[in-house]
Amino acid sequence: MGSNTEYPLSFIRDLHTKMEDNKLSLVYQGQFTQEITRAFVAMTEHSMNQIDEEKTTKKRVFNVMVECLQNICKHSTEYELKGVEESSIFVIGLEDDQYFICSGNHIFNEEVEKLRIMLEKVNAMDKQELKDYYKQVIRDGKISSKGGAGLGLIDMARKSGEKMVYRFDPIDDQLSFFTLQVKVRRKKQE
Amino acid sequence: MAKLDIESTEDTPRVLFDAEGNVFEISGRSLPEDAPSFYGPILDWLDEYYGGTPLPTTTFDFKLEYFNTASSKLILDVLMKLEEHHTAGNDSLIRWHYDEDDEDMQEAGEEFADLVEVPFEHIEQ
Question: Is residue A4 part of a domain?
Fold first, then answer.
């Protein structure tokens, strides 16, 4: 490669500014594994400890993060099995009074409708309904081949207490890109 | 019977089941990706324990900091195992510990208690 293919360093500065402007503390793009999940949990724990974050908030952020990341991991494995090279994105940011945890990953088109229905169902539930639904699924649900128990989204909604925001962008006749944003409101220190 | 002694890791809890020392405790974080692999040996150990000569009452201490949903399903499997043997005449008591300001962990204990027929004590630390 010639010297004219040098990586534009100005881009790093721009990215840093954009991340600061958008209050992003972690952006990762690439393959997701349990090792990555562990590393993110450790990094986020460190940054929340530094600002002396309230304990319940901390645990809720962990919960949502872990469910989000493990969902992507499970999907990645499935794609690799089908020969699709998976690259996903994970973003966590902090605004004044809330954390937002976002993920983006490819999903097969035939899975879109099922996921959309599940998200709509969970989003329409209030606190008590979510609690009842969680208990129903944990009691009756079998562990799926992907290792999940169908509980991840319900748990995220419960820990968040806010409606989840999501979108599906069609890519081609096989794949769509699924983006999910979950907020965790910060509890005041007592 | 040999005790079950599993050191904690970044994503799995400390487990100590020791019939001789009368300690049955799971503590820390549980967020493995493959929860069935982690909890499998725990369930197996319990089968062996109850198949031998269990204590008249076995008291289990759950001191979890947080757990993922994959673990929650397996924790319920452990509790259901205790329920099964409790119903068969081997008394069990579950002590669910939570930090005083951890309402989510307190609620999780209440939900598990609703799902199984085993005496449950909720202990604020």
Answer: no
